[in-house]
Amino acid sequence: MAVKHPLNIVKMKKMKQEGNALSMVTAYDYPTAQLAEEAGVDMILVGDSLGNVVLGYDSTLPVTIEDMVYHTRSVVRGAGNTFVVADMPFMTYHGSIDETLRNVRKLMQEGHAHAVKMEGGREICSAVETITGAGVPVLGHIGLTPQSVNQIGGYRIQGKDEKDAQRLLEDAKALEQAGAFGIVLELVTEQVAEYITSQLSIPTIGIGAGRGVDGQVLVFHDIFQYASPYRNKKFVKNFGDAGTLIREGFVQYVKEVKERSFPDESHVFTAEDQVVENLYGRGREKVNNA
Ligand SMILES: Nc1nc(=O)c2c([nH]1)NC[C@@H]1CN(c3ccc(C(=O)N[C@@H](CCC(=O)O)C(=O)O)cc3)CN21
Ligand SMILES: CC(C)C(=O)C(=O)O
Ligand SMILES: [Mg+2]
Known about the structure:
Blueprint: H1 9-18, E1 22-26, H2 30-39, E2 43-46, H3 50-53, H4 65-78, E3 83-87, H5 97-110, E4 115-119, H6 125-133, E5 138-143, H7 149-152, H8 162-178, E6 182-186, H9 190-198, E7 204-207, E8 215-218, H10 220-223, H11 242-258, H12 273-289
Parallel strand pairs: 1-2, 1-8, 2-3, 3-4, 4-5, 5-6, 6-7, 7-8
Helix pairs in contact: 2-4, 4-5, 6-8
The protein binds 5,10-methenyl-6,7,8-trihydrofolic acid (MHF), 3-methyl-2-oxobutanoic acid and magnesium ion.
Magnesium ion (MG) binds at residues 47-49, 60, 87.
């Protein structure tokens, strides 16, 4: 697949140096990807949050590599000129390095992603080194890592105490060292996220991590209030209300079908008069002959 996206990981680093913010949003399908690209977003994330917002699971854990390939392909078809990152799903990068590489290969060769994202700190750094060594850009993801929700015991803010802040900093540095081109900081206190950002040469992309990071990422369904359980969380800002728009539209559609006000004259196709006459004429004859 030809590389047509205007942004690459070298330019992203330059954007950090020059203080230009990176905008990233999730998309899971062709039409959403098209709209995001038209709007000029820098990067699209095909997040495993698709488990929550598209597939109806209550966490990201059931999402499979096949789900990710399927959705990533459709996103790349819609946004052929945008840098697309695909999430590595739960348990697809913690076994043997062979298995990890097989899953990365699927996202790149079958999903047509330009990069992969992986949750975790120092414990995934040897995999990050191998993957980047194979020519695949890796986006790190620390702070709240939703794939570990059963260990964390909930979707909690990270980096609240000094020990936790130190842990996040060391993880961030290790990921940079391992070759990650950037790091997502999720639900991290603003000051800790800002400090980590200042200690790295690669960009940080925040979600609920405040104003001191190099870029922002949010979930499509959250920012447009599109049937997402997390649309009203503190870290989210709504940029439109697709939920209300679509719900009210559905109600109106049902109403008009029931009361037969849709379709009206403007939606129908009309046959030639002669055709209608003959049709109804013959119909009458048949009835008479019977
Ligand atoms: N639609 C969607 N948006 C997301 O941002 C998102 C997903 N799905 N799925 C995976 C994770 C889960 N995320 C979540 C889920 C819940 C909270 C939450 O309840 N946060 C509390 C703060 C909790 C605390 O005080 O420690 C909040 O009120 O914001 C945060 C992030 C972020 N990710
Ligand atoms: C919330 C973002 C960072 C993510 O990982 C996802 O959408 O799956
Ligand atoms: Mg994710």
